[in-house]
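ok, trying the design again with the full structure, not the truncated one.
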């Protein structure tokens, strides 16, 4: 490889996509530097998926204590809960992972430069008053929370803030009904907060299958979360009891703390993109083609900063595909079909493939199989909770188009189903598969009655 530049590859951003691409490139002998001005690990490890899931594990103990009575355990009441203790343990784990990521970069031979970098041209970045050159530049700077442009929004927390809040509020108001809103609502409810969600539309989780959305709303409501729909926020202000959110139609909701979870946007400002000719769209996402090439030759972008599918495993795949293409002579594009995804609410959602609405919009004649049942565990625990499983099948080819599940095993089950869908599995393939008994998963292979 040429040595007329400082490096072969400079990556800006040490999150999931940047780290994966850099390590893979280095494994093929590329001289790689990665720039990071915050903590190595990015959104997923530091302020996203990982801390969120750790908190969710914590929140679910409430159920375990309550449910245990039905199994003969003499727990009269849930023991006391210590939020600062959980926060400290969560932070220690994040510190450990942060250290691990740094070690992994070092072991891979990637040079970590803990500075904020900005593009000077297609082969040069500037950081900490110095310039560094590389044949190729990869931008993997991720995204960050979007705060609603309404008066008083500064009084609200973002998901970053909630993950660090020193004490649990007694009453939490959540603005938005996407992944982050419902997950954090579920977590705080599990720890005992009174939680109210406000959404501007009719239902939470736009883009998910309607049956699943409605069923999750029922479960969240059963657990004491209030959902206000058609609520378009107009202003947030302090009031005698804490915070008050007012809607355009005059309705108000009061709480001790508010979380604004109204989406995320690409971290593309301050990188010098416009000056060097890297095009972005109206949301600030870097425009890329199927090879993650930007409009400037030699400059690539992966992950949330491109606003394609904003999920960690997708960013990782994009980073690795690029390294395979550039440094291993193996042109590789990411397969965006049948990406499984989960919403870690309580109960959780696992989903892969098309929703009923998407399937119909794409012109499929769909056969729908659906079942709802009380999980076996709750026959003894007495908990009122229902699982929903839904399968969509293309009538013409019998191919399974989508699998959706509301139930705490959903995320674990759906990963395997994603493999089946990528293999083109038909309903007949599902039917000839013997179920694993007793499990919720077996329902996916025993669905007989079309809706
Ligand atoms: P989402 O895009 O999922 O949800 C945004 C929510 O905010 C929606 O309910 C939306 O309403 C609402 N909203 C947006 N703008 C306004 C507005 N002006 N006024 C009122 N409400 C508004 O964003 P998130 O922040 O929840 O998550 C960002 C991304 O992060 C996700 O799309 C996902 O890719 C990723 N993620 C994945 C997770 C996982 O895999 N488990 C967990 C967390 C995040 P409406 O529906 O009406 O548009």
């Amino acid at each position: 490889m040429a040595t007329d530049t400082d490096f072969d590859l400079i990556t800006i951003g040490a999150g999931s996509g940047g780290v994966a691409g850099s390590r893979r490139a280095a494994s093929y002998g590329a001289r790689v530097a990665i720039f990071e001005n915050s903590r190595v690990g990015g959104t997923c490890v530091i302020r996203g998926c990982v801390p969120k899931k750790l908190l969710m594990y914590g929140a679910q103990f409430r159920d375990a204590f309550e449910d245990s009575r039905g199994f003969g355990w003499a727990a009269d009441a849930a023991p006391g809960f210590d939020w600062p203790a959980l926060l400290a343990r969560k932070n220690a784990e994040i510190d450990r992972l942060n250290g691990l990521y740094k070690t992994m970069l070092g072991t891979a031979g990637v040079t970590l430069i803990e500075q904020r970098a900005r593009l000077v041209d297609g082969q040069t970045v500037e950081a900490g008053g110095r310039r560094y050159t590389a044949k190729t530049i990869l931008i993997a700077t991720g995204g960050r929370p979007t705060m609603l442009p309404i008066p008083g929004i500064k009084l609200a927390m973002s998901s970053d803030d909630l993950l660090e809040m020193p004490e649990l509020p007694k009453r939490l108001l959540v603005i938005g009904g996407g992944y982050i809103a419902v997950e954090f609502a579920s977590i705080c409810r599990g720890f005992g907060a009174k939680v109210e969600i406000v959404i501007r539309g009719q239902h939470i989780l736009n883009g998910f299958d309607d049956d699943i959305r409605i069923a999750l709303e029922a479960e969240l409501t059963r657990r004491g979360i209030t959902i206000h729909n058609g609520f378009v926020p107009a202003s947030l202000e302090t009031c005698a009891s804490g915070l008050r959110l007012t809607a355009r139609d005059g309705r108000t909701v009061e709480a001790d703390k508010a979380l604004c979870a109204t989406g995320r946007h690409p971290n593309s400002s301050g990188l010098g993109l416009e000056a060097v000719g890297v095009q972005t769209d109206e949301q600030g996402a870097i425009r890329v083609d199927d090879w993650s090439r930007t409009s400037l030759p030699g400059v690539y972008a992966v992950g949330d900063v491109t606003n394609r599918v904003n999920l960690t495993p997708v960013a990782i795949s994009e980073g690795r595909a690029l390294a395979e293409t550039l440094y291993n002579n193996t042109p590789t594009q990411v397969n965006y079909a049948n990406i499984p995804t989960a919403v870690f609410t309580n109960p959780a959602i696992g989903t892969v493939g098309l929703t009923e609405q998407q399937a119909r919009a794409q012109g499929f004649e769909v056969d729908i199989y659906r079942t709802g049942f009380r999980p076996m565990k709750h026959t003894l625990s007495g908990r009122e909770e229902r699982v929903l499983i839904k399968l969509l099948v293309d009538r013409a080819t019998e191919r399974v188009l989508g699998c959706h599940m509301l139930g705490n095993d959903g995320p674990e089950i759906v990963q395997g189903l994603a493999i089946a869908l990528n293999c083109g599995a038909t309903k007949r393939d599902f039917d000839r598969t013997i179920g694993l008994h007793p499990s919720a998963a077996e329902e996916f292979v025993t669905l007989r009655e079309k809706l």
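Keeping the full-length input from now on. The chain has a mean pLDDT of 97.
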